[in-house]
Amino acid sequence: MAAGERCTSFHPSRRRNRNRLLPISILLKVPKSGRPDFGAPPQDEVRTGSQVPSRDAIPPGLLEATNTCGHAMRLPRREFLQLGGAALAAPALICPATAQTYPSRPITMIIPFPPGGNVDVIGRILAERMRATLGQPVIVENIAGANGSIGVGRTARAKPDGYTIDLGFLGGHVQNGALYSLQYDVLNDFQPISPLVAAPYVIFGRKTLPANDLKELIAWLKANPDKASAAIVTVGVHLVTALFAKETGTQFAMVPYRGTAPAMQDLVASQIDFSFDLPVQLPLMRSGSIKAYAVTSEARLETASDIPTVGEQGLPALTSSTWFGFFAPKGTPADIVSKLNAAAVEALADPAVRSRFIALGLEIFPRERQTPEALGALVKADAEKWWPIIKESGIKAE
Questions:
Q1: How do residues 4-51 score in pLDDT, each as one tens digit?
Q2: What is the pLDDT of residues 288-323, one digit of tens each?
């Protein structure tokens, strides 16, 4: 605001000489010339919250006014009434109430991987159900690359108005922070909305592999050092694959992919030998397109009880899992975050959504943990756990 201007964006709350309210709301900046200029009130001329003077402190002949954004100031009676008339002709100048109107248009859900992959499947199931709660379409936008960091970065740069969220995951919102030199801060540039589901990894192999169980797979890898290949989709997959090589004393090429969908396509086509991936890919195993050797959970999956755990086969160090959650850009208003959280919670409680997730081997977070605070705490705890491991492992970005 230029020097000499004053803000008059207020809802009348008191007259000094008469005890009545004036039904006027305005958002004007009036310079000394008398010509109004639209904009927000300057911080050096507006008193808000506890700074608003008491009623007794208001000099005679002045009015105290407060707008819907919480700003307050005092105006001469004549000027107040003149501006009130202008406001009646300009209702659009009233400070907006985002919570009451949100959402008024479609919401974009960024999926940081190509269509058809694990994250994409989870996101589309939730987007379909959340539409009913929010009353607006939730449009999935796939932005792949760099272990999900390109799509996550798009979310960080988006306007914090609730119309852009991302389906984040352990790799993109935690582990990438220790692997890449990012243009955003994975710990501080996002507003958590809710954790959603967690899942272990499954060791999948091409259907033409001669090995029929994990021990035979390890034996085959040792017999063919540096000839086999494994798909790498995320930092988490890279870590567990590298740990597998260390624990089993095997050597093989690690081939980076932009997402699960292209990696699975190559596995089905026998262009790559094996991969750690999520149970979402179990239908490919059931159809005979690929093999499954072990699951990294502590117990067998209810939907695939024939697949043994890594612990059962002598590799308890490989026990691990990943998680998924909704994030918005930092600065998204709390009331909007609350609406998005409520939509996610309602979707996760839907019997149809739950049955689909369970069939895919995904574990839904307990209701008491489906909060922004719980997701924020999870991100912080996993950063403290994984960042030192990543740095000590020497893993480099592909």
A1: 444 444 344 433 444 433 333 334 344 444 444 434 433 333 333 334
A2: 999 999 999 999 998 899 999 999 999 999 999 999
Q: How far is CA 334 from the centre of its chain?
A: 15
- The position carrying tokens 């021990």 is 215
Q: Which residues make Cβ contacts (< 8 Å) with residue 178, sequence separation at least 6? A: 383, 386, 387, 390, 391
The answer to whether the beta carbons of residues 144 and 113 sit under 8 Å apart is: yes
* Tally of CB atoms within 10 A around 166: 31
Q: Which residues are bridge partners to 167 per DSSP? A: 326
Q: In which order are the strands placed within the sheet that holds 190-200?
A: 138-142, 107-111, 164-169, 321-329, 190-200, 363-364
What's the pTM?
0.72
Element (H, E) at 195: strand 190-200
Q: How far is CA 83 from the centre of its chain?
A: 43
Taken in order 48, 51, 56, 62, the sign of the CA dihedral is: negative
CB burial of residue 345 (10 Å; 0-12, 13-18, 19+): middle
Task: Kindly list the structural domains of the chain, giving each domain's residue range(s) and its CATH number in brackets, ordered by start.
Answer: 6-96 (no CATH), 100-198+322-393 (3.40.190.150), 202-318 (3.40.190.10)
Q: Phi then psi for 217, rounded to 5 degrees? A: -65, -45
